Amino acid sequence: MNKKQLVVAWIMAIAICYILLNAPKVYYDGYSGYKRNNSYDKVSTPDWNVAAQNSIPVLLIGGLLIYTLRTRRK
């Protein structure tokens, strides 16, 4: 892996960590399992579906950049 590829890989890792750490929250009613967007007295969990959907373009573009920036042997 050359230096340009390493820089792209680090930027991808930082971007994916940022996406996963700032995943939107989904609030559940404790008894019925009803999803709510804004509720302060209910249980909240990260919405991993949205986080996965946001990280897929980062993986695709970064993977293509790593592939494009490879050193070619003649």
Set out the fold topology:
Elements: H1 3-21, E1 25-28, E2 35-36, E3 43-46, H2 48-68
Antiparallel strand pairs: 1-2, 1-3
Q: Sheet with the most strands?
A: 3 strands, antiparallel
If strands are numbered along the chain, what order do they take across the biggest sheet?
2-1-3
Helix content: 40-55%
Number of helices: 2
**What is the string of helix and strand elements?**
HEEEH
Q: Cα-atom Rg, whole angstroms? A: 18 Å
Distance N to C terminus: 17 Å
Task: Tell me the overall shape.
Answer: rod-shaped
Poorly predicted regions are none
If you average the pLDDT, what whole number results? Answer: 86
Strand residues, percent: 5-15%
Could you walk me through the main structural features you see in this protein, from its secondary elements to its overall organization?
With about 70 residues, this protein is an alpha+beta fold. The protein has one domain. It has 2 helices and 3 strands; from the N terminus they run H-E-E-E-H. The protein has helices spanning about 5-20, 50-70; strands spanning about 25-30, 35, 45. It has a 3-stranded antiparallel beta sheet with strand order 2-1-3, with no helix packed on it. Helix 1 (about 5-20) runs antiparallel to helix 2 (about 50-70). The mean pLDDT is about 85.
Give me a quick take on this structure.
The protein contains 2 helices and 3 strands.
List keywords for this structure.
single chain; 74 residues; alpha+beta; 3-stranded antiparallel beta sheet; 2 helices; 3 strands; rod-shaped
